[in-house]
Amino acid sequence: MQTAVVVCDSTLHLTWLNAAAEQLLRTSVDRARGQSMEILFLSGDGLVNTLKDALAAQQHLTRRDVSLRVGPTEEDITVDCTATPLTLEAAGEDALLVELSALDRLKRLAREGAWLDVHTANQKVMRGLAHEVKNPLGGLRGAAQLLERQLPDEDLREYTGIIISEADRLGNLVDRMAGPMQPFAPEPLNIHRVTERVRTLLLADSADEVEIIRDYDPSIPDLCGEEPLLIQAVLNLVKNAIEAVDDRGNVILRTRIDRQITIGQVRHRHVLRLDIIDDGPGIDPEIADTIFYPMVTGRAQGTGLGLSISQDIVSRHSGLMEFVSQPGETRFSIYLPFSPPTYPDNGHQS
Questions:
Q1: Residues 330, 294, 128, CA angle at the centre, nearest 5°?
Q2: pTM for the complete prediction?
Q3: How many domains, in total, are found in the chain?
Q4: Domain-embedded: residue 315
């Protein structure tokens, strides 16, 4: 059952919730039992008053587009809420059944589908472009090498050297646009080995004013993937976060287990969620809808390839990448299933 169901007593203290509610509210039934709904529904947009009205009037009430802040991280979600008064005959007292339908989940599924479609189209275009560009680049480089051997003047050879180096640079750029082309060979790995490698690499190059904070769940089991590829995907995201705070802020690496997550057409009981959070100015709303497109960037010196490459790597691992952004907090989240990747046709498998 995907609808979150919560039952509370006549004093609005929780008595029971189902698995979907545990996932939605980022809590467990044992931890939440006995809590006041006012505590459980932080910033509930007047929702608790609606629950009180439903109990007092003993009638069915519905509220739509209600904003809630849930869980230890006070994550913002949007739900439709229906409150139905009950009489618990065994206990001889009134109760309230609360149904919560997460609008964020529906929006996320629609957004995920659009991003996956765009990603697939982008990869086909980029690989076709790579093939068309690299052939003449190879000919250009070879001709420059032959010309260099015939030039008697060392000063003139400097120009052919520029042609060769620029051809190599363009070739590398095309390779990055097309994404990794090697056969995919996943193995068991620990996500914290990936994040620690990225953290070590970037702390060495970052200003002292940047702090990369760990917020790990040490109980997370190994997943199946290619460690070098995941290091590259996370490295791109953390580098973007450091650049967003302009070398003077905080970047958080957070790992958690999420439950009952749908990626593509597959429903997973448990997935790894890796969040990369920065306290920079946020993403420009004008590019938010196209940020995963190749060559789209909010920085003058950026290539616009990092996010596209990261998304490709995550997709190869049967995962999902998404983001939320506002001034003061941008969060990119990578969702990876613990089961081996199952996408049969990603353009990479042997």
A1: 155
A2: 0.58
A3: 3
A4: yes
